[in-house]
Design goal:
Shape: globular
Strand order of the largest sheet: 1-2-3-4-5-6-7-8
Largest sheet: 8 strands, parallel
Radius of gyration: 17 Å
Order of helices and strands: EHEHEHHEHEHEHEHEHH
Distance between the termini: 39 Å
CATH topology: TIM Barrel
Helix content: 40-55%
Number of helices: 10
Number of domains: 1
Number of strands: 8
CATH class: Alpha Beta
CATH architecture: Alpha-Beta Barrel
Length: 280
């Protein structure tokens, strides 16, 4: 049963070794709430061992916000892209090319280390939008390779096409499946290809056995953790607004699935983030 509450969840116990929130949306709010106060968000996360975050802007307003705040807050690096659900809308309005031009300009910022989130979403976009999504995905793959930046991929109900297009285009050297939702077979194929799998609060959901099984076969050197805030709040606070300070709940759930200790997992997560994104 989903627990819904308007109160902010209490802070979890701090992690013994700091980790990075690999994917968060600090430009977004939900359910009519006010936009988060960034200084407070960063302070709360730092207090529990999550001092660094990758802020993802996945539409033009979000991308502009991202480039602004990564100059103001040392805790943040940025990612910019056009979300797969944005691509068909922009295409239908005749605005896709101009949007791509702006994303490419914003991506040149030295503290933007990610092209993403891009990818495919067949859950919210119907068949009429598939061509525009796939074309946009291919363009972002090329941009990541041309800029040498990390590619972060959104994949919802599109596993086969995501893997097929990555193989056809040639994935960037640093490729991340954000909020991984595939099965054991997909996880193994991603690891074989050298991709990173980022797990969110979904790994704590009772009905997410498939995600936990995929996590269980993923080597620690291929793992990342994220919030995807303000969504996907980990149990026992599912339904509340998510934020980076709740990452420890997901990390501890991941450690249990992997039958490893929390410090070892934190060490791996931190090293993987530095390998991907470089110094903050």
């Amino acid at each position: 049963m989903t627990q819904v509450t308007n109160r902010a969840p209490s802070a979890p116990d701090p992690l013994p070794i700091p980790v990075v929130d690999n994917h968060t949306h600090l430009d977004m709010s939900r359910d009519g709430e006010q936009a988060p106060d960034l200084a407070s968000v960063i302070d709360a996360a730092t207090a529990v061992g999550v001092p660094l975050m990758v802020q993802i802007g996945c539409d033009l307003p979000g991308a502009r916000f991202t480039v602004e705040v990564i100059d103001r807050y040392a805790a943040l690096l940025g990612g910019v892209a056009l979300h797969p659900n944005e691509a068909p809308r922009l295409h239908d309005r005749g605005e896709l090319e101009s949007a791509r031009t702006e994303i490419e300009l914003l991506a040149a910022h030295p503290r933007v280390r990610v092209i993403g989130e891009t990818g495919l979403d067949y859950y919210r976009t119907g068949t009429e939008g598939v061509a525009a999504q796939q074309d946009s995905f291919r363009w972002h793959i090329d941009l990541a390779k041309r800029t040498g930046k990390v590619l972060q991929i959104h994949d919802r109900d599109a596993h086969e096409d995501v893997l097929r297009i990555l193989a056809q285009e040639g994935a960037p050297a640093k490729t991340v499946l954000h909020c991984f939702s595939g099965d054991i077979s997909m996880a193994r194929e991603c690891v074989e290809r050298g991709y990173y799998l980022s797990f969110a609060g979904t790994v704590t959901f009772k009905n997410a056995t498939g995600v936990r099984n995929a996590l269980a076969v993923t080597p620690m050197e291929n793992l990342l953790v994220e919030t995807d805030a303000p969504y996907l709040t980990p149990a026992p606070h599912r339904g509340a607004t998510n934020a980076p300070y709740l990452v420890p709940l997901t990390v501890r759930a991941m450690a249990a699935v992997l039958s490893t200790n929390v410090p070892a997992l934190c060490t791996a997560l931190s090293a993987n983030s530095e390998r991907l994104y470089g110094p903050w």
